[in-house]
Amino acid sequence: MTAGTMPAVMRRPAALLAVLVVGLLGGCALIPPTPGTTQADSVYALYIVIFTLGAIVFFVVEGFIIYAVIRYRRRDDRLPTQHHGNNRVEIIWTVIPTVIVMILFIGSLVTLASIEQEGADPVNIEVEGFQWQWAFHYLDEGVTVDGGSVENPPVMVVPVNRPIHLILHSDDVIHSFFVPNFLTKRDVVPFAEGTNPNELEFTVNRLGTFRGQCAEFCGRGHAEMTFVVISMDPADYADWVVEQRAAASVEPTPTIPAGLQIVRISADQLEFDTNLLEVPAGEDFVIEFTNNEVDIPHNVAIYDGEATLFQGEWLTGPGTIQYLVPALDAGEYTFQCDVHPSMFGTVTAR
Amino acid sequence: MATTTLAPEAPAYQRSWVIEWLTTVDHKKIGILYILNSFVFFFGAGILALLVRSELAVPGLQILDESTFNQAFTMHGTLMVFLFIVPMMSGFGNYIVPLQLGAPDMAFPRINALSFWMLPLGGLLLISGYLFGGAAAGGWTGYNPLTQERFSPGVGMDLWIMGLTVVGTASILGSVNFITTIFKMRAPGMSLFRMPIFTWTILVTQTLILLATPVLAAGLIALFIDRNYGGSFFDPSVGGDPILWQHVFWFFGHPEVYIVILPALGVVSEILPVFSRKPLFGYHAFVYATVAIGLLSFSVWAHHMFTTGVVFLPFFTFMTALIAVPTGVKMFNWMATLWRGSLVFATPMLFALGLISMFLIGGISGVMMASAPIDFHLQDTYFAVAHLHYVFFGGAAFGVFAATYYWFPKMTGRRLNEFVGKIHFGLIFLGFNLAFFPMHELGIQGMPRRIADYSPDAGWTVMNMLSTGGAFLIALSMIPFVVNVVATLINGERVGDDPWEGNTLEWATSSPPPAYNFDRLPPIRSERPMFDLRHKHDPAVHHELATAEAES
To answer: Which tens digits make up the pLDDT trace of B331-381?
Structure first.
């Protein structure tokens, strides 16, 4: 191509747009986040191989199209040679993608075998996904992490360099346990009785805090199902377990003294039965909360703007619980279900 | 002396044009009705897409709440797939296939009208949930048990099921009609291997519809029974299997992808030869590749289910990646068709080239996700959203626009303005890539699909803003398109019967064609009868024709 033809070429919209596409492609990294587990290291390596193959195919084909658009544009009215086909080239370009496919297939099998290997002495955690939050039950340590909100997501603490074995359990709809840095996810499926739950194993190999969230659309609060995985040295992890156990045992269940005023509220169909609670000001009182919804957790918490005044324990229905609420000054506050912040109302203390 | 003459132009049975269009059984009018109906739903579903993208532009909930967001993306996906892209291709098929076969009409004209009129009915049923407390909000895939009565109580979900069943029934009826027409109504000389590629792709597509759609219909009816009559197909709390729904849905849903894309690839294979003045390179290989894709499409459904933990990964990885082979053959044949051609860049050609380059990206990202370990990361993220839009929009919808520009002169006798058409192409090409390319990166960084909101700390804001900007650019590109169509209809350039020097039989009659389609047909000795007719004195072409004559 001579220099003289270039400007004419650049004026062609198709060529110009093609240049823009390539620019756009170059502008994005398209590389996965830094792997956090040994399994993610394998997936990352496979990704780089397959992505490179894909990029080569991309540039060869797009390059050819751009070349053809420039080189073979109509210059005169002559009829070009009428090639109808050629069996030899058909065979060649059947073989080329077949070879690429075989590379991809074998690479995938090898990677699959390596990431599905189970290690010795794992930390067994039952992950419970429900609309719309997570609970982590450490089966051998007897520790449970639950609660939390979008701003304050539940934390799964794990030791580094030790296999973490998750048992994924749901009682409502399908969720999916996804940590981008682990380059994997697994669906949390409410299988019928008699079917084993899904499992997922990984070994975190670096210290860090990893953001995770539900990846299978699960209804209104899908976006709120966030969580965090924090990896620690084994010694710190052991300390954490001890702390959790201690916290669980000292947390007293407050006994409800007789004679306090009782305010009743119930929840069903993701709604409270009232949006107004009238409570006495300046003295302790009791909220008797009934959750009529099967398998769905709710609670009642009272806020003054951003400040938390009282946070009731989560109750999975059906059931009733009594909360002992410390005295409130006269005034207006809001209450809500922390699991479902769209369930809220006003508390008037007078 | 008494003379007998034929009754002079017996006055046609007069009726208003409204009645004429409402009761027509002419495949060309029904085809246009299909196309208009599909564009109406396209614009509606496009507005829903703008709502979704506006909500996601920045973190926080601004214009939609979570429920309306979920309804918006559910109805966007459902309408785009079932009421825009599939019926749109059926519309072009309706108009073009009988013409390409040299036939006077479809085999069953009344069934043809019935299968069209069920579409707007089904579509209205689908969206009528908005009038009764909220439309369906379970995603276009309607996964169980989320779509069970106890998690999605509203009547919107039942209306979604009923609407889809009606639309599905319409496509089953249509497929029987197409298959019969193609096998039984070809003109003399039109052997299967002289059929235009677009008609071939319609034949394979309609066969897929006939085999796959009843499976979806069965699943939808089972879900309706679960919801309303105490069934237990998919609800695990009463012993059902939620994964069964995914098998049923994707056994339909993956062939559906090819139902959507194959006719668009057929359109490209009509346009490239015409605007390169060369035959389609490897016509036979192209037909075999189309059939191979159709067959393989029934053995790959579970690649949508890699993360469910219940499918045999190596088989589905292998079969899915294998589809890249016939698709690659198509891509290479297109490249060889351009090679040493004589290319002009009219708007249909621009959209065809745009389709090839965009569908390539969708193909590459598809093969990446065929690998199960990589899919574990990318499944249900924005990478999948990017992939499916590069196939459905960059592939199929670009095919729709290519077909619109290419066959508009056939339908009206007038050509859409080329200058405005190129503005449309430039805007939509830019907007499309701006809207969907950043989604690859979002998905790789871990943004799940179908979330109404995301944290400002996630680092996804810039890409989301770009993407939203692109979506509005696509919307903007619709203005020149609509203006072009309206202005051309009113006062467009009249370009005669065959403005593009077409190859296939639809160009052998007037534009627009008379109700009975053809006065006479040229001899059919190859897949390009009109090219042969135009160049019959060219020695090379003459020799080819003589050979074909001797063989037949």
So the answer is: 999 999 999 999 999 999 999 999 999 999 999 999 999 999 999 999 999
Tell me the mean pLDDT in the region B87-113. 96
Q: Percent of chain B at pLDDT above 90?
A: 88
- Say how many domains are in chain B: 1
Q: Do B367 and A191 touch (CB under 8 A)?
A: no
Return the CATH number at B344: 1.20.210.10
Whether residue A330 is contained in a domain is answered as yes
Same domain, A246 and A273: no
Residue A255, domain member (yes or no): no
CB contact under 8 A, A28 and B371: no
Number of A to B CB contacts under 8 A, please give it: 295
- Give the integer Cα–Cα distance in Å for A268 and A195: 29
pLDDT, tens digit (0-9, with 9 covering 90-100), for B501-527: 999 999 999 999 999 999 999 999 999
Mutate to test the interface with A, among B73, B140, B146, B427 (most CBs of A within 10 A): B146
Q: What is the DSSP letter of B343?
A: B
**Does the CB of A72 have a partner CB in chain B at under 8 Å?**
yes
B469 neighbourhood in chain A, CB within 8 Å: none
Interchain CB distance below 8 Å, B371 and A25 = no
Q: Do B371 and A176 touch (CB under 8 A)?
A: no
Nearest to A191 among B146, B236, B307 (CB): B236
Name the nearest CA neighbour of A179 among A161, A153, A146.
Answer: A153
The answer to whether A93 faces chain B, any CB pair under 8 Å, is yes
B22 falls within a domain = no
For residues B387 and B367, what is the distance between their CA atoms, to the nearest angstrom?
Answer: 10
The candidate with the shortest Cα–Cα distance to B216, out of B168, B258, B145, is B168
* Contact (CB<8Å) B343/A68: yes
Give residues with Cβ within 8 angstroms of A168, minimum separation 6: A127, A129, A177, A186, A187, A188, A189, A197, A198, A199, A200
List CB contacts of A251: < 8 A, sequence separation 6 or more: none
Chain B environment of A90 (Cβ under 8 Å)? 282, 285, 329, 333
| Number of residues that this document lists for chain A | 350
Task: Quote the ipTM score.
Answer: 0.91
**Pairwise CA distance, residues B253 & A49, whole Å:** 29
Domain tally, chain A: 3
Q: Is residue A80 in a domain?
A: no
Judge if A305 and A191 occupy the same domain. no
**Cross-chain Cβ contact A104/B236 below 8 Å:** no
User: Residues B57, B61, B62, B67: is their CA dihedral positive or negative?
Assistant: positive
pLDDT in tens, A206-233: 999 999 999 999 999 999 999 999 999 9
**Sign of the CA dihedral running A105, A111, A116, A117:** positive
A90-147, pLDDT tens digit by residue? 999 999 999 999 999 999 999 999 998 888 899 999 999 998 899 999 998 889 988 7
Separation in Å, CA B4 to CA A95, A112, A193, B202: 70, 85, 86, 47
- Determine whether the interchain pair B448/A29 forms a contact, defined as Cβ–Cβ distance below 8 Å: no
Q: Is residue B23 part of a domain?
A: no
Q: Are B241 and A192 within 8 A, CB to CB?
A: yes
pLDDT digits (tens, 9 = 90+) for A274-300: 888 888 888 888 888 988 887 788 889
Domain extent for B463: 33-521
Task: Please check whether residues A93 and A135 belong to one and the same domain.
Answer: no
Domain span at residue A38? 3-75+85-115
Q: List the single residue in B70, B381, B438 with the smallest CB-CB distance to A28.
A: B438
Q: Do B433 and A21 touch (CB under 8 A)?
A: yes
Of residues B125 and A254, which shows the higher confidence score? B125
Q: How far is B360 from chain A (nearest CA, A)?
A: 7
- Buried b / exposed e over A91-108, threshold 16 CB at 10 Å, is eebbeebeebbeebbebb
Which pLDDT value is given to residue A194? Answer: 83
